[in-house]
């Protein structure tokens, strides 16, 4: 880190060795991307030497982060020689503070109006940083999928079924389309181990939902559109 010690930290070594081992366990000789998962506020190396070494060795071509706010990204960028091209964040129709806060900005007494990521959506678009949506089908935080959950999300599943029939895809595809339809060009990170769900998701990623359809899904999931 240029603002602190230049000594190679234990964390840098760990990061570099961990990444190299992961690449070598996988199929390829390099990774297209390496993402730093969450920020750690304690004084330590930011991994810049590990990034330099992995990049120079051709092990990693592009770097990114996960769950970082705009301020955290700006702070980290000061220590790095490579651009940060992606940021993975949790995003699904039912877990969408990334979109929802801005849609209901500045509304007193409305929980949705709380900005939980310091304007990450606008920051990412203004800085050409690609957002990647993790847990695209989860209700909230690893508590099961909203697809087919009629007990908690009956209205949402009605709209998903209706749009799936209209577009000739599955509700899974429409859930993906809801993310990819946004002009921020967000990429979807699937967690499924079921090949057919990957195919359904890919089919949905090309669906051009109308603005009205997009907002119908959003409100059916319980969000407010002022
Ligand atoms: N950067 C980060 O901090 C972070 C955090 C968490 C996750 N991630 C990444 O994001 C990826 C996706 O997250 P995730 O796994 O939570 O996402 P997800 O794709 O929303 O959920 C996958 C899980 O939901 C099940 N599922 C999917 N569609 C279903 C359906 N229609 N009906 C019933 N079950 C269904 C899958 O089961 P089947 O396997 O049986 O299809 C799987 O158990 C992870 O694999 C991980 O790589 C990143």
Descriptive labels:
226 residues, TIM Barrel, alpha/beta, 5-stranded parallel beta sheet, disordered N terminus, globular, 9 helices, 5 strands, binds NADP nicotinamide-adenine-dinucleotide phosphate
Give a written overview of the molecule:
β1 (31-36), α2 and β2 form a beta-alpha-beta unit. This protein has helices at 10-25, 48-56, 70-77, 97-103, 120-126, 154-167, 171-180, 195-204, 211-220; strands at 31-36, 60-66, 84-90, 130-134, 187-189. It has a domain at 91-220: TIM Barrel (Alpha-Beta Barrel), CATH 3.20.20. α1 (10-25) runs parallel beside α2, α6 packs across α7 (171-180) and α6 (154-167) runs antiparallel to α9. Strands 1-2-3-4-5 form a 5-stranded parallel β-sheet, with helices on one face. Mean pLDDT is 88; it is low at 1-10. The protein is an alpha/beta fold and 226 residues long. It has 9 helices and 5 strands, in the order αβαβαβααβααβαα. It is 40% helix and 12% strand. It binds NADP nicotinamide-adenine-dinucleotide phosphate.
Largest sheet: 5 strands, parallel
CATH superfamily of the domain at 91-220: NADP-dependent oxidoreductase domain
Number of helices: 9
Secondary structural class: alpha/beta
The unique ligands bound to this protein are:
NADP nicotinamide-adenine-dinucleotide phosphate
Mean pLDDT across the residues is 88
Topology:
Elements: H1 10-25, E1 31-36, H2 48-56, E2 60-66, H3 70-77, E3 84-90, H4 97-103, H5 120-126, E4 130-134, H6 154-167, H7 171-180, E5 187-189, H8 195-204, H9 211-220
Parallel strand pairs: 1-2, 2-3, 3-4, 4-5
This protein binds NADP nicotinamide-adenine-dinucleotide phosphate.
NADP nicotinamide-adenine-dinucleotide phosphate binds at residues 37, 66-67, 88, 134-138, 142, 145, 147-148, 172, 189-194, 197.
């Amino acid at each position: 880190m240029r603002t602190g010690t230049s000594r190679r930290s234990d964390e840098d070594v760990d990061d570099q060795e961990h990444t190299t081992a992961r690449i070598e366990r996988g199929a390829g000789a390099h990774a297209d991307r390496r993402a730093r998962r969450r920020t750690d506020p304690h004084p330590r190396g930011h991994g810049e030497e590990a990034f330099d070494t992995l990049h120079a060795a051709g092990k990693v071509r592009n770097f990114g982060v996960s769950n970082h706010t705009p301020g955290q990204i700006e702070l980290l960028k000061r220590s790095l020689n490579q651009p940060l091209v992606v940021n993975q964040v949790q995003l699904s129709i039912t877990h969408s503070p990334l979109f929802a806060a801005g849609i209901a900005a500045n509304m007193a007494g409305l929980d949705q109006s709380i900005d939980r990521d310091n304007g990450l959506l606008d920051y990412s678009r203004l800085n050409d940083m690609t957002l990647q949506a993790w847990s695209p089908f989860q209700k909230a935080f690893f508590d099961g999928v909203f697809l087919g959950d009629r007990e908690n999300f009956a209205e949402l599943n009605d709209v998903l079924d209706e749009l799936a029939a209209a577009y000739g895809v599955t509700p899974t595809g429409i859930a993906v389309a809801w993310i990819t339809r946004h002009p921020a060009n967000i990429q979807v990170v699937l967690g499924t181990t079921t090949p057919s769900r990957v195919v359904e998701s890919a089919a949905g990623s090309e669906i051009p939902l109308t603005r009205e359809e997009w907002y119908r899904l959003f409100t059916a999931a319980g969000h407010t559109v002022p």
